[in-house]
Design goal:
Chain lengths: 419, 317
């Protein structure tokens, strides 16, 4: 009798706790938690599988079903996954990339979790998860962008990390004269060109103007935009970029850096493991912040990857508990560690891995990004504007003379997209 | 039946009214066999065609219900197509594909004639020539994109050996589409070849003998005696090549992803990009492109169906 009574009590308690979505409700979670993740690269995959297994172990009555989808494929599969028989938790990206799913009501509003303190330590990153005044998910990792360069070649040529654009150009001239290209880039899939535009525009016109452009308030025909492209053109005309970049993916452009045919690469921190695997040591690669152009506060790109609860989720309590678990300080330190994702933790109470690049990136983002933190070209601009925009940027890099035509096209797209 | 004493109510078996199915057996049975085919064909082909028409009248991002989330815009998507430069580029590229892809037919015929002889190991040679058609289009695309790589690709190594400059075949907007079509011709030629090889087996040796006696030789023999007998093979080769050209998608997706800056898109790829890709949320616009592509295909399919029907009617008379 008493055993039955006890379990009845436990059951009532669990439903009550679940109702308030409290972290202490953990061990009472029941049923199945279905997660679809896009962490398909080897290291992230191991991290995600570890997360799911640990969470499953913590909750004896809960079964965690994890499905890992190819990261590129997920970008178009997500809409089908969310429409029919949606899972409980899914991976996606922050900022405007959430827009279509938020507008269609496919992501669950979890503003209450931020409001009632269920997610301690996430205050600083809350902004990237906010659309229409509500929060739609949690971040789990982010990474800096910047210029990764061949330290050994810089030393050989007697160059220092530049701080201004003039120094950058002077350095580049030396590099070009030595028979190398300054920057590797692979623009076949377009977005790498978006990174260059983000930085040149944020440095030339400031973070706020960049965001005005992203939200459609500023025009592509604005003279300030032309100034950005003029700066870009200076680099293109001096032969700073590798040739034929429109044919390569970003990975296919890496060998140029590895072989020393190009000395630097404006890219996200995710390129570092690839450079190391290719045989470069940490003495050969280093990192610097994109140099200052105009006297405006520095804005930075730091794309954030996220978890969301589908609004059709069956096991909302478990899903909420999982989001808390993923973003907790401890787990954040662990999954962003050098053996796992090798990126920056989102929780303010976590510690950043002891890694040259992560430490530099963290310092840059926390101390020298007073302009603001952007997500990335294709996450800040609405999908359609981003796709037309990046295509124009790639065309500009190959045929800079087409600029007028490109800007007119982008302006026409802007007028339609933001109407 | 012979039992006279049986009660009058028992009608003889042969005169008993037959079941409905028994009475209509001849008319109904073919339809019964056709039902699964008709069912799947309508669910997966016919109904979606009409759905495409319907969706193309809306501005809808493909998420949620079209009745709630979609906005009815009438023919506006089509009006926008008219002024869309990317659509125009795609349309022209489709035309290039259609015309140049047809080169697979004479090329296939040439190889088939060349291989149509009895030499030791001819079966092996035939299967080697047929090989490109067996491997997947994705692999063909990958192989060719390496082949075309600037500076280090095989083609450019050869060009440089003869003192030419390296050409970025897939990175030059004026050349890229032709480079992809050339890659597509490789498996398509093999396909045309196999069609002609089977056709050549059916060529009547007596007619050739007769033509020889009359002094026909070389290309006259080919043009007036062999080719007319290969007409069925040529027809099928035309059908599969034209449909293949209009469906071209995999090679473009693998080799250039529509780029550089959209110069190698064709209608099917543009439709995918607008409606279903990473940044594509315009189901209505994509459907409008699909409808245009469908209408273009309809011209050819209509022609093919007509000529098949005509041939059948002639055969009956």
């Amino acid at each position: 009798m008493s055993i039955l009574k006890k379990s009845m009590l436990a059951l009532t308690a669990s439903t009550m706790l679940a109702g308030t979505a409290f972290a202490d409700g953990h061990s009472n979670l029941e049923g199945t938690l279905r997660i679809i993740s896009d962490m398909s690269n080897p290291a992230p995959r191991a991290a995600m599988e570890g997360l799911a297994a640990d969470f499953d172990e913590m909750h004896p009555n809960l079964t965690v079903e994890l499905e890992i989808v190819d990261r590129e494929a997920w970008k178009s599969q997500i809409r089908n996954a969310l429409s029919a028989n949606p899972p409980d938790v899914i991976n996606w990206y922050a900022a405007n990339r959430m827009r279509p799913y938020v507008d269609a009501g496919l992501f669950m509003d979890i503003s209450d979790m931020y409001a009632n303190g269920d997610l301690p330590g996430l205050e600083a990153v809350q902004g990237a998860m906010t659309l229409d005044g509500a929060q739609w998910g949690v971040p789990y990792t982010y990474y800096q962008w910047g210029i990764y360069y061949r330290e050994d070649i810089f030393n050989e040529l007697g160059l220092e990390e530049p701080e201004t654009f003039e120094q950058e150009i002077a350095n580049c001239q030396v590099i070009v004269d030595s028979g190398r290209a300054c920057y590797a880039i692979g623009s076949k899939f377009l977005w790498t060109a978006g990174g260059w535009f983000d930085y040149l525009n944020m440095r030339t016109n400031g973070f706020d103007f960049h965001m005005e452009l992203a939200t459609g308030q500023a025009s592509w025909m604005d003279d300030r935009v032309r100034e950005t492209f003029a700066n870009w053109r200076t680099l293109i005309d001096m032969g700073a970029f590798i040739e034929d970049h429109q044919t390569y993916s970003w990975q296919e452009a890496l060998p140029f850096v590895v072989n020393g045919e190009a000395t630097a690469y404006l890219i996200g921190n995710f390129a570092v493991p690839h450079l190391r695997e290719a045989g470069l040591t940490d003495d050969q690669i280093d990192f610097y912040q994109f140099p200052m152009i105009a006297d405006v506060p520095m804005g930075e790109d730091a794309p954030t990857d996220t978890f969301h609860i589908a609004s059709g989720a069956q096991n909302v309590d478990a899903a909420r508990a999982f989001l808390q678990y993923v973003t907790s300080a401890e787990v954040q330190t662990e999954i962003n560690g050098p053996d796992a994702l090798g990126q920056l933790p989102v929780n303010a109470n976590s510690s950043v891995a002891d890694d040259e690049f992560l430490q530099q990136g963290f310092e840059m983002l926390s101390q020298n990004a007073s302009g603001g933190i952007a997500q990335f070209f294709d996450r800040d601009f609405p999908a359609e504007m981003a796709s037309a925009g990046m295509e124009g940027l790639q065309e500009f890099m190959v045929f800079p003379d087409n600029l007028d035509d490109i800007l007119e096209r982008l302006e026409a797209t802007r007028e339609r997209v933001y109407e | 039946m012979t039992d006279v004493t049986a009660p009058a109510v028992a009608t003889p078996r042969s005169q008993r009214p037959k079941g409905w199915y028994k009475r209509n057996e001849i008319a109904v049975t073919p339809w019964l066999f056709l039902i699964p085919g008709i069912l799947f064909f309508s669910v997966y082909v016919i109904i979606p065609i009409f759905q495409s028409f319907y969706v193309s009248l809306f501005e809808w991002n493909g998420l949620g219900d079209i009745a709630e989330q979609g906005e009815f815009v009438g023919m506006q998507n089509y009006a926008e197509l008219v002024g869309d430069r990317n659509f125009e580029i795609s349309l022209w590229n489709n035309l290039k594909w259609l015309l140049l892809y047809l080169l697979a037919i004479p090329a296939g015929l040439f190889i088939a004639l060349f291989l149509n002889q009895t030499v030791v190991g001819i079966r092996l040679y035939k299967s080697l020539f047929f090989f490109p058609f067996v491997i997947s289009q994705v692999v063909v695309g990958l192989v060719f994109s390496w082949f075309y790589l600037p500076n280090v690709g095989l083609l450019n190594v050869i060009l440089q050996f003869f003192g030419f400059e390296s050409v970025n075949f897939l990175g030059d907007p004026d050349v890229a589409t032709y480079a992809i079509i050339a890659a597509g011709l490789w498996p398509q030629t093999a396909y045309a070849m196999i069609l002609y090889l089977t056709g050549l087996n059916a060529v009547d040796p007596e007619q050739i003998e007769a033509a020889r006696l009359d002094g026909a030789k070389g290309h006259k023999m080919l043009w007036y005696v062999i080719l007319p007998q290969l007409r069925p093979a040529t027809f099928i080769a035309f059908v599969v090549t034209i449909i293949g050209a209009l469906r071209s998608f995999d090679l473009i997706s693998i080799m250039t992803n529509g780029g550089p800056f959209g110069s190698t898109r064709v209608l099917s790829f543009y439709m995918f990009e607008k409606a279903l890709s990473e940044y594509g949320f315009r189901m209505g616009y994509g459907s409008a492109i699909a409808v245009v592509l469908f209408l273009i295909m309809l011209v050819f399919i209509g022609y093919f169906l007509y000529s098949m029907w005509r041939d059948e009617r002639e055969a009956r008379h």
